[in-house]
Amino acid sequence: NSNKKTHQDRHPAEAEATAIQKVIGWAIDHPELHFHITHVSSALSIKLLKLVSSPNLTSDTCMRYLLLDNESKLSEAYKKVNPPLRTPMDRKELVDAFTIGIIDMISSDHSPHTRKEKEEQKLSGMPGVQEILPGLITLIHTKQLEWERAIEAYHTLPSKLLNIENNRVKN
Predict the structure, then answer these.
(1) 46: helix, coil or strand?
(2) What are the helix and strand counts (H, E) for the chain?
(3) CB 81 within 8 A of CB 126
(4) Which of 32, 80, 105, 119 is at a distance of 20 to 30 A from 161, taking alpha carbons?
């Protein structure tokens, strides 16, 4: 059926951007609070994040959005994640934004499923923890990312966000 909507159609980049626009507004209206936008996945969202620089607003993306896109050679069942994998252009924009710090941090959305669950039930999600470090090294090796930025995005900024210093949570 050609009218059948895809996972990406049901989760458009415009919906993500609309949500991010709302969070940006809240961050501006409430500078005393901290806001964090997680799993940024689209170039449209990057355009919005480039418009604002606020110490009370941070963001992250998952390694899958920096390494994979909707044209990646995986079965549709394995590519089904939320937000969905976007276009190659979106992926390039995300890598560029991550590299220069528009997207502050890297995160995982560790949602493992068995092969049977992915193939038969078509569940959203994929493992994420084990892909971060190899993904960062891949971006460094391909000259898309500097070591210092990788450490900042993977350790320094998340520790600061979670109020962790010297491996201890501060009061």
Answers:
(1) helix
(2) 10, 5
(3) yes
(4) 80
Active site residues: 109
| C-alpha–C-alpha distance, residues 139 and 90, integer Å | 16
DSSP-assigned beta bridge partners for residue 105: 60
The CA angle 26-29-34, to the nearest 5 degrees, is 60
Give the C-alpha separation, 112 to 129, whole Å. 10
Please state, as a whole number, how many other Cβ atoms lie within 10 Å of the Cβ of residue 146: 12
Parallel, antiparallel, or unpaired: how do β-strands 105-107 and 164-165 relate? Answer: unpaired
Between CA 85 and CA 72 the distance in angstroms is 9
DSSP structure class, residue 84: P
Stated pTM of the model: 0.89
Q: Which residues pair with 57 in a beta bridge?
A: 35
Strands (DSSP E) contained in 63-116 are 105-107
Q: Using the 8-state DSSP alphabet, how is residue 110 labeled?
A: B
Helix 43-50, helix 13-29: angle, nearest 10: 20
